[in-house]
Amino acid sequence: MSNIKYDILADDLTKQGHNVDKIRNNLKKQHIETPSWGYGNSGTRFGVFHQEGAARNAAERLEDAATVHKYTGVSPTVALHIPWDQTDDWDSLQQYAADLNIGIGAINPNVFQDQIYKLGSVCNPDSSVRRVAIDHMLECVDIMSITGSQDLSLWFADGTNFPGQGNFRQRKHWMEEALREVFGALNDNQRMLIEYKFFEPGFYHTDLTDWGTAYVMAKKLGDKAQVLIDLGHHPLGINIEFIVAYLIDEDKLGGFHFNCKKFADDDLTVGSINPQELFLIYNELVAAELDPEVETDIAYMIDQSHNLKPKVEASLQSVCNLQTAYAKALIVDRQSLAEAQAAGEIIDAEQILQRAVETDVRPLLEQVRLEMDLDPDPLTAYRKSGYFERISKARVGGESQGWA
Ligand code: PSV
Ligand code: MN
After folding, report:
1. What is the CATH number of the domain that holds 184?
2. What percentage of the chain carries pLDDT values higher than 70?
């Protein structure tokens, strides 16, 4: 099928000095992991809203993740959350994933939900609670060895809500002790991703509050520990793309949790409110990708739990937004940008980025999908497929395994 809009764009990009075949290849190799918890019922702290067709167990969550991959071609793995996705037969679950043409990605321990964690997990003043939390993470490392997962993705709700509630330095030591023990259990193919969060549920302080605190832990532990950036976990006004560049340069950027922040830890669709910020983040990622001096191994994961949008559609939309941001970053004229930066030509430098941002990359993405034997419009193709109608009929009643 001839794609005239693509031909015009490809011509224009070639004239700018781009290798369009390479750009299309990069887009085909993009890998966005979706979260199992994005397919089940979830809520805000004010309540849980149940959705038709929401996945009730790990197998159904895999089916939804596989559906997102089927229509996008770039989301071949799914992150699991334990115990939400716990099973007594990991081999079968893994086989089921393989049958669905996807793999199991990052393993996320849950050390925040049980009643014992009311005052925290690894920084809990009660040593027996700290032990339970560490044992749970060690169990997750065992699960990784069965599933072949590379990433142990850690987030701690640990923090305090009132002045005087905790001893900051003591808690820092407990955090380090716990991470060190778990780190020691990782094999050579496994790594630890350390996520930080500015606040919530600790509103006075959070033990891993920003990239710096996560970085210090990762640095102390060693190469197999890296930092995970969740876009929703920063104070307002922070320059996330700068953090991205900085951590890449220190070889400490291990992964992303994509979502979109308006005020705090929102589960908004990535790129829905601030596509410019997402582009600027991808601009740093692509700059590093193209730099022969830089080596990265970054896990690109979505962390969104949609309560209002239909879940599979929201995942498709999110993956497509990430494809758009990547495509725009790939078409930045880097040579001219470097020249403008060196010459102190601020307006020109900004204009070069804007030119990429304002380019309609849809024909490029459509072409890439056609070449991958996919429908050029994943969302519409999914809607026409009848999948939602099928799961809505099939997933009625029964126990829900998960947080809601
Ligand atoms: C916490 O806000 C977080 O971002 C962590 O990554 C959790 O694992 C995830 O959300 C799901 O609750
Ligand atoms: Mn997260």
Report:
1. 3.20.20.150
2. 99
Verify whether ligand 1 is closer than 6 Å to residue 267 (CB atom): no
In a domain, 378, yes or no: no
Atom number in ligand 1 closest to CA 305 = 11
Residue nearest to atom 7 of ligand 1 (CA): 155
Q: 37 CA to middle of ligand 1, Å?
A: 9
The answer to whether residue 163 is domain-embedded is: yes
Band (pLDDT 50/70/90 cuts) for residue 402 is confident
Instruction: Judge whether residue 400 has pLDDT over 90.
Output: no
Nearest alpha carbon, ligand 1 atom 6: 155
Checking if the pLDDT of 376 tops 80, the result is yes
Give the pLDDT score at 399. Answer: 81
Which atom of ligand 1 sits closest to the CA of residue 195? 6
Instruction: Give the angle subtended at the CA of 229 by the CAs of 77 and 87, to the nearest 5°.
Output: 40
Please enumerate, as own/partner, the contacts of 276-281 that have beta carbons within 8 Å and a separation of 24 or more.
276/357, 277/240, 277/241, 278/321, 278/322, 278/325, 279/325, 279/328, 279/329, 279/353, 279/356, 279/357, 280/241, 280/353, 281/231, 281/240, 281/241, 281/244, 281/325
Nearest ligand to the C-alpha atom of residue 153: 1
- Domain membership of residue 272 as a residue range: 30-331
pLDDT value of position 265: 81
- Ligand 1 atom closest to 81 (CA): 8
User: Does the beta carbon of 158 lie inside 6 Å of ligand 1?
Assistant: no
Q: For residue 403, what pLDDT is reported?
A: 65
